[in-house]
Specification:
single chain, 228 residues, five-stranded antiparallel sheet, four-stranded antiparallel sheet, rod-shaped
Length: 228
């Protein structure tokens, strides 16, 4: 069998699984331009050429695991691993222009036209809860009702108004448990925006309870619901 020589007493033919050596000579391997992907052989097991498109790019067959799109290497809810990958956002001229999707759909990450990512404090708009109630007896009155089994309500704002001539204090209660006590002057009001949301017990109403009868005490509460 003829053997190609490297001109220095060596051979260009290398045995399978043989170790490489520094300075080993080699041959330029050419391919065939094929603007449409096609095989140069007709039978499985035949020799074939390397095929390139009109841009000189080698035709390759993508692995079946990525034919539906490129995905990450760590599954949802799996232990994090590997290096971070940057993600982009879609610029939008205000949230009111967004098209609503259905629950369970994949959604875009949005940013303003200046590239700043759009975010909301604490929760999505769907989970905001609020209540308003009045009292004259000085008893415990519900302001935000229980949200159902396993659902907690977090308070983010409490607004009190007292139209009576009597100064009182008002307990803000998670059910029957006092979370905070607020001073409420006669003929005045109180606005309390805690630095962090105040958590409530699951499936429990938020109540307000004046220290004495006063006509009339009005309470407004704002918060959000969560399973955590």
């Amino acid at each position: 069998m003829p053997v190609l020589s490297d001109g220095a007493g060596g051979t260009l033919a290398k045995a399978e699984d043989a170790p490489a050596a520094s300075g080993d000579p080699g041959l330029l391997i050419l391919g065939v331009r094929r603007d449409t992907a096609a095989s140069s052989s007709g039978t499985d097991g035949d020799y074939s050429t390397f095929n390139f498109d009109s841009s000189g790019k080698l035709w390759v067959h993508a692995d079946a695991t990525v034919t539906g799109g490129i995905g990450g290497d760590t599954a949802n809810d799996a232990v994090d691993s590997g290096n971070p990958v940057k993600t982009g956002s879609k610029a939008i001229a205000g949230q009111s222009t967004a098209t609503l999707v259905s629950a369970g759909d994949r959604v875009e990450n949005y940013a303003g036209l200046d590239g700043v990512k759009l975010m909301r404090p604490h929760c999505g708009l769907e989970d905001i809860v609020s209540g308003n109630a009045t009292d004259t007896s000085g008893g415990s009155v519900s302001c935000i009702s229980a949200q159902g089994s396993g659902i907690r309500t977090y308070l983010t704002s409490v607004i009190l108004c007292n139209t009576s001539a009597t100064a009182i204090t008002v307990d803000i209660k998670d059910g029957s448990t006092v979370k905070i006590s607020l001073p409420l002057p006669a003929g005045g009001g109180c606005i309390f925006n805690p630095p962090v949301p105040i958590p409530g017990t699951a499936n429990t109403a938020w109540n307000f309870d004046g220290s004495a009868a006063a006509t009339t005490v009005t309470c407004s509460m704002v918060g959000f619901k969560s399973k955590v």
